[in-house]
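Quick sanity check, Cytochrome c:
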Amino acid sequence: MSNCASCHGGNLQGATGPGLQQIGAKMNKEQILQILENGKGSMPAQSHISADERDQLATWLTEKK
């Protein structure tokens, strides 16, 4: 999570990257997982974490509504 916080903020409020506090209201799990796996814009793919960890992260972010 500390890697995410460097761009998305400690409370997911946004910093150099967009805020994620309500990302689950805007994107579904599959969309979030695709971004984690492939990257988007200036956000690189999160290949340093396992597929299981990416899945867990996508599930957690989907709950942010």
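Posting the structure with no commentary besides this: The CA atoms of residues 8 and 18 lie 6 Å apart.
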